[in-house]
Amino acid sequence: MRRGFDPDAAPKDLTFKQQISAAWAYHVKGVDQHTLAALYGVNQGRISAACKAVDVALKDPKATNAAPQEG
Q1: Which of 11, 24, 47, 66 is 20 to 30 A from 55, comparing alpha carbons?
Q2: Are 57 and 67 in contact (CB under 8 A)?
Q3: Residue 65: which H helix or E strand, with range?
Q4: Is the entire prediction scored with pTM above 0.90?
């Protein structure tokens, strides 16, 4: 029997909470994206996308659904 990484058992995407946590760790704590990818068991592209989405939301809240609703 072969040991090691099982690609079928790996998560394919991050939850919203994981995306926020990963982006926080990257932007605030300075954790490298490849380190976060290894911790979450996803590829580095997923971490990069999460960090970019948070960046965009913080710079322009109107560009996303993150803006508070008026009224």
Answers
A1: 11
A2: no
A3: none
A4: no
